[in-house]
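User: Okay, second chain of the day. Same drill as before: sequence in, C-alpha cells out.
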Amino acid sequence: MTVIDGSLTTLLKTRGLFLTRERGDAAGIVYICVDDGLPGGYPVGYVVPSRAGTWFAYARARAGRVFACDQVDAGLSGIEAAVRAVLDHARYGDVLYALARESDSGAVYTAELPRDRAAWLASLCAPGGITHVGDDRVRLTGPAVAYLRGLPERLGCHVDAEDRIWLAGEPYRLIRATR
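Assistant: Same drill. C-alpha cells below.
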C-alpha cells in the first residue's frame, strides 16, 4: 500500500476507514473503505492516478446510493490530497448507522446544547434516535451518533473522534452512558 503521512493515517483510523487496492490492479486505484467486518470493507470512495501524474477523487457523496460515487475533485498533486478530498465529501453515516444497529451496544449519549439547536437537531428526519429531552438537552442513541460520525465535517453537523457533536462550527461534548 502507498505510504501516507501520519495525520492522514490517524484521521482514517478515527473515522473507522482504511485504504485498500484490488489484487492485480495495474491502474493503481486506491479505495477508501469503512471497516464493516467483512473482507475488503465497504467502499465510500476511491482515488485514481492519471497519466499526467495527478489524481482524481471520487466519493459516495449521496447517502443511500449503493457503490455509486461521484467525482469530487481532479488534478490533485498526490494521493494524500486525493484521499483528503474523498474524506471531505464522503457520506457513509447510513452504513455506520446500520452497523451500530446490528451490534446494538446499548450506548446512549446526551448533550447540552442551546435550546434552538437542541430543537433543530431533534427535528431532523435522519438519523432516527435523537430526542429533545429538555430545554437544552438531547439524547442520541449509539446508531444516531454513528450516523453523525459518517458525515463530512464541511456539512456543519457531525460527531468527531473526541465524542463532540459539531453544530454550526461549535463543539458540544457528548456524554456516553449505557442503557
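The chain has a mean pLDDT of 87.

User: Thanks, on to the next one.
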